[in-house]
């Protein structure tokens, strides 16, 4: 009898698992389909407009070749430069900021942190007009949009200190003190003690800083103002989707989407292990 | 290590300084550029045809043209340089900016905008508000009026003045159909077309949830929608969409949108399941390729309500070439000369040959190739039922498109349709910058 009941439980378990798996499979299909669709469309060469089927009738690399003969090259390079510069500069500033706020005690530290927290609550959109004006007067718009976008991205990066400060707070202060006693400078403490211990959070910071510019559309479009040489990939590719362009560029657009996804995906796969640790790492205060 | 830190901090401070200093210190140059210099300079616009040599010189000019037209525009500017006979040399930078995007870029910053730009006529009021277009002088206005058809002149007019040069008069829509699904004998009747599509399980693409398309149905039943603009770009609307005729139009819209085959789209949908698409000349090449031998094109059909037949109407519109106000009046006059060249019959015909853009210029319209073009033929047939699109404020489009949405969600009863029209009238009455006449 016991045996029988045990079996019943087991089959019940199996049944519920089956239901859960079926549900998950359906959800993942829904989620993955657009990506599969874009990849397949990017290899479709029989025509360049939207069609009602998914599997290409003729396969080829024409769309990718076309990307290299269009302005896309320039847009991609622009975005890559912005992403790389942002990743380096934002990471340095943000980590220094977090270290300072975590380890130093100075006047107005509390008010400063609260002030930045409140500033961060205003939607970034609100500052767009004045930022545009400032950049235009500095000559950092249109063909010079790239340094302009880097400047804007980096200038406010100190405010994103919360996560890494939270993580730094979990590293025992006695480690710092021991190092200080041994003669280390403040910078050496950050560089030699804190950073190696905070590797996940460093990588998380680099990743988010690198990924941001790839999706930037609204502000990037403002700054480039109709100058192709200053477009990033999002703005440039969107210009292929107007009424009179889409029939010509649709499949090329899909190919562009795949190429844009590549560096981010590769970086993500390589650093994924740290990413998860980084996101949750700062959340628990030790 | 300390040195490195110090250096880093110094760089950061410098960056901060540059960012702050730029903001406050450079207000002055921002207020002076061409965009803000009001009437004095722009009044010169293109009035100096006789004063040839005064315009001699080299001018740097930025031009926004749609991606497809960039090469041709460069070539036409070169032709202008060699043929103008006034010693004008234009050093042009042509940037690919869609004519649909020109106004949103100009909204951002007129001073950084192009000197010469292609734009769709519905953006004219925004351009005037932004101070992005020059009011044409008497000579230039006469040039436009003498050389272009009525639609082109209407499109470039706001209040009592002209503000731009017509480039095309093909911004209208008509019907493309798949001959294997809809026989030629059925193309005049909306009901028969719907039946054919249902029988073949094919879609009917007609972007009725867009005021540019649904207003046409109202024109078809005899409704009118007349706009007037004062010189401060305030709008007055005189329309009767909420009337007995309007109700007939609403019934016509319900006929199509209540069927399962209705698709709210104006794209080249033949490859994705449609047998009929209501769209314009810009999709011609693609649709021709999609349909091959089954390609059919004609004017819009008629629909029947209570035994009476009503031919679907439409808007017809234009693309325009705008000239930005210039600080340097001589440069302004030179650019106006270029604008007149780019919109003359020869250049319009070249655009027709390369991209199928229908001309607004009278000479180009008389050209046999233009006369024989199938899509322009359909556009012409539809022209009898088309209303030239006047200067309309942006918010009206957003209000009027909800008529279709409301009709689609209704049960099709007279009360429900009337309610949708009443809601439209109330919303327009409450809208910013629009005054209802009467």
Class of the largest domain in chain B in CATH? Alpha Beta
**Main beta sheet strand tally, sense and closure of chain A:** none
Number of helices of chain B: 19
Distance between the termini of chain A: 50 Å
- What is the straight-line distance between the termini of chain B? 79 Å
Radius of gyration of chain A: 25 Å
Strand fraction of chain B:
15-25%
Strand portion of chain A, in percent? under 5%
Mean pLDDT metric of chain B: 85
Helix residue percentage of chain B: 40-55%
- CATH topology type of chain A: MetI-like fold
Topology, number of strands of chain A: 0
Count of the domains of chain A? 1
Number of individual domains of chain B: 2
Q: What would you say this structure looks like, in words?
A:
The complex is a heterodimer of chains A (about 290) and B (about 450). Chain A is mostly helical. Chain A has one domain: MetI-like fold (Orthogonal Bundle). Helix content of chain A is about 75%, strand content about 0%. Chain A contains 13 helices and no strands. Chain A has helices at about 1-40, 60-70, 70-105, 110-120, 130-140, 145-155, 160-170, 175-180, 185-195, 200-215, 220-225, 235-240, 245-280. The radius of gyration of chain A is 25 Å and the shape is globular. The termini of chain A are far apart. By secondary structure, chain B is of the alpha/beta class. Chain B has two domains: about 40-170 and about 320-385, 3-Layer(aba) Sandwich (D-Maltodextrin-Binding Protein, domain 2), CATH 3.40.190; about 175-315 and about 395-435, D-Maltodextrin-Binding Protein, domain 2 (3-Layer(aba) Sandwich), CATH 3.40.190.10. In chain B, the strands form six sheets. In chain B, strands 2-1-3-17-6 form a five-stranded mixed beta sheet. The longest helix of chain B has 24 residues, at about 1-25. Residues about 15-50 of chain B have low confidence and may be disordered. Chains A and B meet through helix 5, helix 6, helix 9 and helix 13 of A and helix 1, helix 2, helix 4 and helix 11 of B.
């Amino acid at each position: 009898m016991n045996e029988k009941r045990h079996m019943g439980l087991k089959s019940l378990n199996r049944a519920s698992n089956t239901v859960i798996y079926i549900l998950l499979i359906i959800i993942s299909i829904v989620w993955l389909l657009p990506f599969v669709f874009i990849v397949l469309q990017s290899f479709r060469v029989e025509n360049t407009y939207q069609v009602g089927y998914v599997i290409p009738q003729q396969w080829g690399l024409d769309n990718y070749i076309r990307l290299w003969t269009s302005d896309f090259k320039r847009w991609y390079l622009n975005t890559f430069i912005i992403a790389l510069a942002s990743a380096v500069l934002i990471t340095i500033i943000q980590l220094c900021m977090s270290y300072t706020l975590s380890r130093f005690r100075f006047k107005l530290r509390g008010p400063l942190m609260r002030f930045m927290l409140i500033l961060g609550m205003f939607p970034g959109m609100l500052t767009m007009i004045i930022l545009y004006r400032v950049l235009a007067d500095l000559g950092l718009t249109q063909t010079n949009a790239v340094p302009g976008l880097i400047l804007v991205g980096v200038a406010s990066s100190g405010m994103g200190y919360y996560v890494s400060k939270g993580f730094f707070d979990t590293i025992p202060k006695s480690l710092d003190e021991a190092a200080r006693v041994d003669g280390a400078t403040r910078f050496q403490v950050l560089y030699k003690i804190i950073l190696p211990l905070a590797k996940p959070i460093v990588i998380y910071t680099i990743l988010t800083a690198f990924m941001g510019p790839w999706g930037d559309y609204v502000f990037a479009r403002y700054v480039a103002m109709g100058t192709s040489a200053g477009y990033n990939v999002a703005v440039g590719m969107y210009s292929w989707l107007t009424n009179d362009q889409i029939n010509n560029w649709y499949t090329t657009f899909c190919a562009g989407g795949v190429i844009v996804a590549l560096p981010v995906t590769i970086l993500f796969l390589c650093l994924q292990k740290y990413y998860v640790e980084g996101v949750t790492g700062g959340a628990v205060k030790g | 290590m300390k040195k490195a830190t110090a250096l880093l901090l110094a760089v950061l401070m410098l960056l901060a300084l540059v960012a702050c200093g730029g903001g406050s210190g450079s207000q002055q140059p921002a207020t002076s550029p061409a965009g803000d210099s009001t009437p004095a300079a722009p009044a010169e616009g293109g009035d100096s045809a006789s004063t040839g040599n005064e315009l001699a010189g080299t001018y740097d000019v930025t031009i926004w043209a749609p991606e497809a037209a960039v090469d041709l525009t460069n070539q036409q500017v070169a032709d202008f340089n060699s043929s103008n006979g006034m010693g004008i040399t234009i050093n042009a930078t042509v940037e690919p900016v869609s004519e649909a995007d020109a106004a949103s870029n100009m909204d951002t910053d007129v001073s950084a905008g192009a000197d010469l730009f292609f734009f769709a006529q519905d953006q004219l009021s925004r351009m005037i508000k932004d101070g992005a277009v020059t009011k044409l002088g008497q000579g230039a206005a006469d040039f436009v009026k003498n050389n272009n058809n009525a639609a082109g002149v209407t499109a470039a007019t706001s209040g009592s003045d002209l503000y731009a040069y017509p480039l095309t008069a093909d911004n209208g829509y008509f019907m493309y159909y798949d001959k294997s699904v809809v026989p030629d004998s059925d193309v005049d009747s909306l009901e028969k077309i719907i039946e054919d599509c249902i029988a073949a399980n094919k879609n009917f693409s007609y972007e009725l949830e867009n005021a540019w398309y649904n207003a046409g149905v109202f024109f078809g039943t005899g409704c009118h929608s007349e706009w007037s603009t004062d010189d401060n770009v305030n709008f007055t609307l005189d329309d009767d969409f909420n009337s007995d005729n309007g109700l007939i139009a609403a019934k016509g819209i319900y006929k199509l949108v209540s069927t399962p085959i209705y698709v709210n789209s104006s794209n080249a949908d033949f490859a994705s399941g449609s047998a009929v698409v209501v769209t314009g000349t810009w999709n011609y090449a693609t649709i021709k390729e999609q349909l091959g031998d089954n390609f059919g094109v004609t004017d819009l059909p008629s629909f029947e309500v209570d035994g009476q037949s009503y031919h679907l109407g439409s808007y017809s519109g234009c693309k325009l070439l705008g000239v930005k106000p210039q600080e340097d009046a001589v440069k302004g006059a030179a650019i106006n000369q270029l604008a007149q060249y780019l919109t003359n019959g020869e250049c319009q015909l070249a655009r027709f040959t390369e991209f199928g853009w229908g001309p607004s210029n009278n000479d180009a319209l008389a050209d046999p190739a233009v006369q024989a073009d199938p899509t322009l033929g359909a556009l012409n047939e539809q022209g009898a039922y088309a209303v030239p699109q006047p200067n309309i404020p942006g918010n009206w489009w957003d209000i009027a498109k909800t008529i279709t949405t409301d009709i689609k969600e209704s049960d099709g009863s007279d009360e429900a349709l009337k309610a949708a029209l009443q809601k439209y009238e109330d919303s327009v009455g409450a809208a910013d910058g629009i005054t209802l006449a009467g």
